[in-house]
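Work Package 3 (structural annotation) set out to generate three-dimensional models for the target panel prioritized at the project kickoff. During this period the team completed the workflow that converts sequence records into discrete structure tokens, so that structures can be stored uniformly alongside our sequence database. As a representative example, we reproduce one entry of 64 residues exactly as it appears in the project archive.
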Amino acid sequence: MIRDIRRVSAVKERLQKTANYLEEVNPEMIVPLHCTGLKEGSYLRKQLGDIVKFRGVGEMISVR
């Protein structure tokens, strides 16, 4: 999943619901984009572990 998750950026309860949903969906990788915010992306990383990858402009992501 590569996208911004900006709609969850302020409210912790909403962010937890999003983390729960993503855990159910069980994606191979989550790459939060800049609109997600570092704080929110870090929260997702803490909740979901190593499937959350931080990447920057120009970095390549291999998908199968």
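The chain has a mean pLDDT of 84.
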